[in-house]
Write a structure and sequence with these properties.
- By secondary structure, the chain is mainly alpha-helical.
- The protein has one domain.
- The protein is 79% helix and 0% strand.
- The chain contains four helices and no strands.
- Helix 1 runs antiparallel to helix 2, helix 1 packs antiparallel against helix 4 and helix 2 runs antiparallel to helix 3.
- It is globular.
- It starts with a helix and ends in a 9-residue tail after the last helix.
- The C terminus is likely disordered.
């Protein structure tokens, strides 16, 4: 579930970044870096699930820490910014969904070590 959510949220974001006229090149590059890191985390989980299950726990641990840290910091920036209610609501859903799925995946592998963490 975490892999699918991550690809669904961050894959289309790259196109949106580069078509956003309000961003300068530096802003576009930074936001693309964030999206790229998230997509790489999804690929790392998929790799661990299919090729290296022994790496699943540490990979999920890193992904969960990155996801929670990113959304706490980014959520605070968004909340402090000058955004309309719809923008705030969408990003709150993205943050809560991402953090929830990441923590659920971590709890699953930490408790059982099984591959059920992202399977659905």
């Amino acid at each position: 579930m975490l892999v699918g959510w991550t690809v669904l949220v961050w894959g289309p974001r790259i196109r949106n970044i580069w078509t956003d006229a309000s961003l300068d090149t530096g802003g576009q590059v930074l936001r693309t870096l964030y999206a790229g890191i998230f997509l790489l985390t999804a690929a790392a989980i998929a790799f661990a699930l299919t090729r290296r299950p022994d790496l699943l726990r540490p990979v999920i641990g890193v992904v969960a820490a990155w996801t929670v840290g990113f959304w706490i910091l980014r959520g605070a920036q968004i909340a402090a910014g000058d955004h309309d209610a719809a923008f705030l609501a969408v990003h709150a859903v993205l943050a809560v969904g991402s953090i929830g799925l990441a923590l659920n995946a971590w709890r699953s592998v930490a408790r059982t070590g099984a591959n059920i963490a992202v399977g659905g």
